[in-house]
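Dear colleague,

Thank you for sharing your sequence with our group. We've completed the structure prediction you requested, and as agreed, I am returning the results in plain text so they can be pasted directly into your records. Please verify that the sequence below matches your submission; if there's any discrepancy, let me know and we will rerun it promptly.
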Amino acid sequence: MDPSGEVTNPPTPATDDEATERVRVVWRGDFVNQEVNVLHAVAFGTRVYGDDEWDWLSLTRRHSLGWVTARSGADLVGFANVLWDGLVHAWIQDVMVSPSYRRRGIGTAVVHAARDGAAAAGCEWLHVDFEPELSPFYIERCGFEPAQAGTMRLD
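Please find the predicted structure tokens below.
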């Protein structure tokens, strides 16, 4: 990522257009609910939730330290939410990249922007939990250290 927050996708053998495409990654970038709900649906294989069901704008402004947007032109192609304890711990949540933009370094750039935003706020630790198959992404590409943790389903 260059200082302007832009990520130049690595060249691919597909087309010259793909090789020169630029994605802008922004800490606390603007977004609307509908575009995050659509991205969430394609990234996680869910239905598209309505604004009245999943109000990202209200939730992030009430509960988050920040969030990261990744855009190709006007299109939202990546997003992550960063929650925190108000002091030294932050958690990255809902990391998503549109399937057609994956494997281009965008997810890594989104996580690094979240890391930088949390560090600038004075956080000392950034936490993430993930499925085992995502370990190469979070550990090898994003720089997280393995840690033992647990989750509890509340239903």
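Summary note from our side: Residues 106-120 form the longest helix (15 residues).

Kind regards,
the structure core
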